[in-house]
Amino acid sequence: MIKSMTGFASAKGELSPYSWAWELRSVNGKGLDIRLRVPDWLDGLETGLRAQLVKSVSRGNVTLNLRLTRSEEAGALSLNAGTLNTVLTALAGIEAEAMERGISLAPSKASDLLSLRGMLDTSIGQDDTAPLIAQLKQEFALLVQAFVQMRTDEGASLGTVLTQQLDQIETLTAQAADLAERRKDERSETLKANLARVLGNADGADPERVAQELALIAVKADVTEEIDRLAAHVKAARELLAKGNTIGRKLDFLMQEFNREANTLCSKSQSTDLTSVGLDLKAVIDQLREQVQNVE
User: Less Cβ crowding at N or C end of the chain, within 10 Å?
Assistant: First the structure.
């Protein structure tokens, strides 16, 4: 079973006096890029969550957001003026530097600032956070499970599309092989006529040398090798899809080979019908390559 790099999962939970909301999402990426936004006053939480994701995901740009709030009944909240001043001064400096460089920054949210360590003077820092961290880690395991399942479900649908496109490539390759076979006699007669024409108008020409040159032209126009390679690539792609797991990189490499053979087929075709099939091949291969970008 293949997996898509696109996925999403969300969940909510609570452990008095806290409540929270998770959002875990991913999009395509060349490698694995994990970005976490979790409260930094929960020591060790980010490290544990990251380790869990690394075990479950191998490719994609993954983003996790954890929004944690504390009920008002648990104690009054007050801002640490010193920390707030330091943070706002730093933000002003960053925004000024960004404006000088012509960079537009998204506005900061109060919730982002409140999650920074030392921003709030409350009993939060005095709470025993171990039970909270344990609960969050336990729930996160379930969140990742749902996240991976969605990527797997997306992968199943993606696998169906890839299989259909491989079927199209296989059909077009067979058409190309049939056209190439049917034009062999025509090409043979053309070469013979050309050879007779050259020998009849070139006194003293070496017949063997002329025949060798014409044979070389025939070899350069032969597309049998390209057709055989396309068929082999289709077989290799099907085997990868049947194998499943993390096959995105290998499929991406195969797409380059598919495209190379289709390009060569078009350049060597010397036939309107064969060129038309080659162009159809290139179009389907390009569609296949776009879908392959989604495979983990």
Answer: N
